[in-house]
Amino acid sequence: MSNNETRAPTGPWAGSDFQLPPSDGTIALCGACRRTGRCRLGLTTEQLGDDGIVRTSLTCAADNEGGPQVAHGGWTASVFDEVLGHVPLLHGVMAVTGQLQITFIKPVPIDRPLEARAWVERREGSRWYIGGELSLAATGAVLGRAGGVLVERDASHFERHQRWLSQQDSAGGSAGSADGAPK
Predict the structure, then answer these.
(1) What is the mean pLDDT of the segment spanning 32-45?
(2) Dihedral of alpha carbons 151, 8, 83, 106, sign
(3) Which of 38, 97, 164, 174 has its CA 20 to 30 A from that of 15?
(4) What is the dihedral of CA 132, 134, 140, 141, to 10 degrees?
(5) Quick one: pLDDT band at residue 161, thresholds 50, 70, 90?
(6) What gap in Å lies between CA 17 and CA 85, rounded to an integer?
(7) Average pLDDT, the chain
(8) Any idea what the Cα angle at residue 96 is, between residues 90 and 117, rounded to 5°?
């Protein structure tokens, strides 16, 4: 397979170590959302099209309001992280966000149907370069754009992180972090 090709999912669900797969066009639920049985970000359906584009239906609920009648920018960033992250996942590959860049074009209204679209721009080794847009579902007016680099991970990724975090907890008494930044 070349670096720009994607593959159809085979075998067990790529995120089965912490995530429920989508069923009947619904959304793959992350660890926190699977406890409630719904996506807390308002994503309701997602579909990987034959064109390679993931189309996601969603609504920003009023409890994510930032300014009057508009979404908090943090909600918008979280949505892009989730939607871009689902592209490799729906291709059967688990990946984690390494980089995320967002351009806010228009304020995102609350309580209105929205559509997010995300696609593979290119692949380089284990890195997936993903692009995406968030728009009004009724008119297609673009509200924001994002680009991200997602890095493939193996099944032991989170286990290694927990070991590292335990080491950090054990080293806890120092004045700064391992990278020199203040605590």
Answers:
(1) 79
(2) positive
(3) 164
(4) -110
(5) confident
(6) 16
(7) 83
(8) 45
Separation of alpha carbons 94 and 96, rounded Å: 7
C-alpha–C-alpha distance, residues 103 and 174, integer Å? 38
Question: Domain containing 49 — which CATH number?
Answer: 3.10.129.10
Name the β-bridge partners of 182: 176
d(CA 42, CA 126): 29
Q: Does the pTM of the predicted model rise above 0.85?
A: no
Pick the range with the lowest mean pLDDT from 83-92, 97-106, 118-127. 83-92
In-domain check, residue 143: yes
% of the chain surpassing 70 pLDDT: 77
CA distances from 171 to 25, 32, 167 (A): 45, 28, 6
Provide φ and ψ at 139, rounded to 5°: -120, -15
Domain count, the chain: 1
Residue 37's pLDDT band (cuts 50, 70, 90): confident
pLDDT of residue 165: 84
**In terms of residue numbers, what domain contains 62?**
31-170
